[in-house]
Every structure is written in structure tokens, then in C-alpha cells.
Amino acid sequence: MEIGVEEIKQWLQQLSQTLQNKKEYLTDLDQAIGDGDHGLNMARGFKEVSVKIENTSYTDLGLIFKDTGMTLLTKVGGASGPLYGTAFIKCATVLTGKVTMNVSELTDALEAALNGIQARGKANLFDKTMIDVWEPVVSYLKDHKDSVDWEDVMRLSNEKMEATKDLEAKKGRASYLGKRSIGFIDPGATSSAYFFTELSKVLKGVSK
Ligand SMILES: Nc1ncnc2c1ncn2[C@@H]1O[C@H](COP(=O)(O)OP(=O)(O)OP(=O)(O)O)[C@@H](O)[C@H]1O
Ligand SMILES: [Mg+2]
Q1: Atom 3 in ligand 1: which residue has the minimum CA distance?
Q2: Among 46, 129, 131, which residue has the most ligand 1 atoms within 8 Å of its CB, making it the best to mutate?
Q3: Per residue in 141-196, pLDDT tens?
Q4: Is residue 154 within 8 Å of 92, Cβ to Cβ?
Q5: What are the pLDDT digits (tens) for 26-57?
Q6: Which domains does the chain have, with CATH numbers?
Q7: Residue 207: what pLDDT?
Q8: Which atom of ligand 1 is nearest to the CA of 81?
């Protein structure tokens, strides 16, 4: 499978659309255990990304990931802007100079992104953050490079997002609630599930 700038543009546009549609839902999730800005942060940031990439023609994958990351870093506040921004910028470093990539190269980029999120946010698995979706999805991709079933990726990201409901938050504002954070789905894990679901939808449609 060869993935190029057009597929990445399509994914980012679909992700932006989903985040606009789910803005209130993400806000509700963040109101329960945080400060209620996650929906706004994500919708605003990806709207900026959407406009930026629509009006730019990219000659390689590194450049579109870098532009996306820089836009999120500079336009989105809170914890999520820098974390998602770092993720895209780390992908860019792996993809610089590549006009297309295969699933193995995409996996390398996403692994670098995960490492970047962890280096920046210092969260571990089961701390009730976006890591609880990213880590298992990247693990799955590493184990199935040649045989990825994108339906499985969608299912997995959704399942891991739902599973954050039973966890106690150890990072971010939600951690101030201690055990009272149990029983609510993590907002960042939810936006991460959208990230991987929209990516999977686009890649499912790419012929081998
Ligand atoms: N240290 C961290 N590492 C990884 N993800 C994190 C970390 N801190 C917060 N998050 C993720 O960010 C989400 C909240 O993002 P939001 O846009 O609401 O920013 P925020 O209000 O500044 O965050 P927070 O209150 O959690 O510090 C959380 O649901 C969680 O998934
Ligand atoms: Mg918040």
C-alpha cells in the first residue's frame, strides 16, 4: 500500500470534520473530569489545520505533517495542543523527503509520535490519557505491519478509549479528582480514537 499527500489530506479533513461534529461531546467529557476546553481546543486547532492544508500543495509527506504540527502547537492551548503538535512534528521527522510511505513507514512515524507524546507529557499506560489509545494501536501496527486490518484498528482504538472509563487519572487536571475520576471516559483518549478511526477509514479505501 502506498500512502501519499492526498490520503493524508483526506484524513486530516475528515478528522477536522469529526472534531467539529463532536466538539460539544468532547467538551462534556472534559467538563466531567477537567476544565471543559478539550472540544474547543481540538475543533479550533483542526479547523486551522484544515484551512492551512487546503490552501497548500505539498511535495512531500514530511511537510504536511510538519505544517499540521506547527499549526497545533501555535494555535492550540492546554495540554492537548502541544501533545498533538509534538506527535505530528515527530511524524514529520521520520517522513521528511518521502513522497509516499507504506504501512511500515507510517508505523515508524506513529511510534516516533507516541515516544514524543510520552517524552513531553510523562504519562504511562493506564494513567487515563491519550496514551491509553496510542500505545495499543502503535503496538498492533508494529505486530501487523504486513497484514493490518483497518477495521481492527478502529475497533481497538474504540475499545481502549472506552476502557479509560474504569481508570483513575494520574496526569493532567483530571488527576486532581483522584478516585472520583473513575467512571468517566478520558477526553484525550476519545479524540485519539477519532484520530485513528478517521485514518483507518481512509487507509481501508486505499488499494494495495
Ligand atoms: N501528561 C499528559 N500526557 C498525555 N496526555 C495528557 C497529559 N495531560 C493531559 N493529557 C490528555 O489531554 C487531555 C486534555 O486536553 P485539554 O485539551 O483539555 O487540555 P487541558 O485542559 O490543558 O488538559 P489537562 O487539564 O488534562 O492538563 C486529557 O484528556 C488527556 O488525554
Ligand atoms: Mg481541558
Answers
A1: 121
A2: 129
A3: 999 988 999 999 999 999 999 999 999 999 999 999 999 999 999 999 999 999 99
A4: no
A5: 999 999 999 999 999 999 999 999 999 999 99
A6: 3-204 (1.25.40.340)
A7: 56
A8: 17
Q: Residue 4 contacts by C-beta under 8 Å, 6 or more apart in sequence?
A: 61, 99, 100
What's the pTM?
0.97
- Output the residue whose Cα is nearest ligand 1's atom 16: 38
Q: Whose alpha carbon is nearest atom 24 of ligand 1?
A: 172
Ligand 1, atom 10, lies closest to the CA of 129
Written as nine digits, the cell of 30 is 472534559
Distance 40 CA to ligand 2 centre (A): 9
